[in-house]
Amino acid sequence: MGLDVLVVAPHPDDAELGMGGTICRMLDDGLRVGVLDLTDGEPTPRGSPEIRGRETAAATDALGLPWREQLGLPNRRLRATLAARAELAAVIRREHPRWLFAPYWVDAHPDHVAATRLTEAARFWAKLTKTDIPGTPFHPERIFYYSCVHLRVVRMPAFVVDISSTWDRKWQSLRCYESQLPAEGPQPTVLDRVDAAAAWWGSTINTVRGEPFFSREPIGLRGFGELF
Fold first, then answer.
1. Above 90 in pLDDT, residue 1?
2. I want to staple 75 with a disulfide (CB 3.0 to 4.6 A). Which of 39, 44, 117, 176 is the partner?
3. Strand runs labelled E in 122-184
4. Residue 79, domain CATH
């Protein structure tokens, strides 16, 4: 049947950090959501491929995700190469997602910037005819961008999603990544900053928790029933 939404993440934990609450809201609304991790995230100081694999599986269960794959591209050396573009385009052609999500296009982490360039290029390539990319041509309607934790700059989002009802599930998924997001350590921890940011973004729309999203393209509305 394919996916409604494909979230492209440079590393395991990026999807949860950037839009874990929104993923849960989408699932609650009956959307078919998948996460594609471009790399396994290793090496890291406290991790290993085996540890990261167990953590990712636990986080996937915490979110209730029915679909998650890994593309197997190199961590720390992620590049938007032609070969990688074809691999991602093949996934898009196989799963036919209506909407793509990628990291915000300005980031301190080179892998995140490369992931966004790769996603944008693969979206275009996925629609090409007369190509050796597997699958039938397909072009996702929209690409949106989620916020990551490395760049401490506040950008004006295109919209903010209320995740008050799904915050606990997002938090549970983040706690699965013990090797990357330890609860103890220099203050504030990454988890402290994620908590504070979600509360602040929620306050901008008069809710308890929120997640910001960005768009390079105009967003159309057919009505105002969902605005608040």
1. no
2. 39
3. 142-146, 159-162
4. 3.40.50.10320
